[in-house]
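## retry 2 of 3
previous attempt timed out at serialization; input unchanged, resubmitting
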Amino acid sequence: MTKCRKLFTTVTGLLLSLSIVLQSGIAVRANEEDSLEQLRGGVTAILNPGISGSADIVNAKARELNLDLTAEEEQEKEIRLVMANVQNALNVRSEANEEADKVGMLYKDCGGTILERKDGWTKLQSGNIIGWASDEFLLFDEEALNLANEVGKMVATISTETLRVRMEPNTEAGIYGLLPKGEIVEVLGQDDEGWVCVDYEGSDGYVSKEFVELDFLIDAGETMDEIKARQEKEEEAKRHKNYGEYTTDIDTTMLLAALIQCEAGSECYEGQVAVGAVVMNRVRSAAYPNSIHGVIYASGQFTPAMNGKLNSVLESGRISSSCIQAAQEALSGVSNVGDLTHFRRNNGREGLVIGNHVFY
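## retry succeeded, writing output
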């Protein structure tokens, strides 16, 4: 396999003056006056579930929860973020006891907002779930913030009709291409002049902060009705289990290949196989949906699935032969990332670096 170059992008800072949007995932939206350099640290603000509104993120109506940072610095601030502390899944119940009905489930790396706490149980909201979970399986305070920072992702949504993506952070620089209104791209950093660095087809592109909305995404749980609906769709989409664990038809193979094209089309072959392996590792894990379709379209996970790019590539058939081959290798059981289940543009975090991505 061809070895890829390593690219290190450092992203630092804190999330300040944000709002939380809870849908099937959690999104933290930055106020315009906040610099992205502040945002890059992840969720480090107080979640206040008492204030609600609405926002149009990822083509869906969501509930908005504002962050309250008005307390004096010397006063202790209550952190309202909670994260699941499980390897697979955690039951959320209608009442604070083990005998109560299940209203939903939180999976590994899912987060929510604390509504109430009593007797070793926490009432929380995560996506459309509102219910009680045992404190034994939850993370609070700094531990919750640290995990959210680790698994969350900052994205930018284009807010103008068409936005140029520059090769350098200035208006005289060359143009990689154009992004339409509503397009969602992963954020890598920002300079002092108001330019946001984004992932543009594997390259570092630059867009003006004036024309984007910034969001910090964390995955959320599912209600029992949502689980039932998802499982029914997965039954329609999934094929025979065999291939060492999985065999699939051409449509599902091409779906995986299209995701690889979107996420790693400009990467070397090793990087393309690695992306496919991450998807298959999730399929095999009890902490994620058990089909390729379910994993790829899980909320808040893969940016191309969120912004419609994946469907566009799949429908057009513009998928390189190397991405198709990488999908076939991943389906056959090949993994060059072990059992790792996450990747992102390399920002200096610890993990296995392949090309422009770090796997963890």
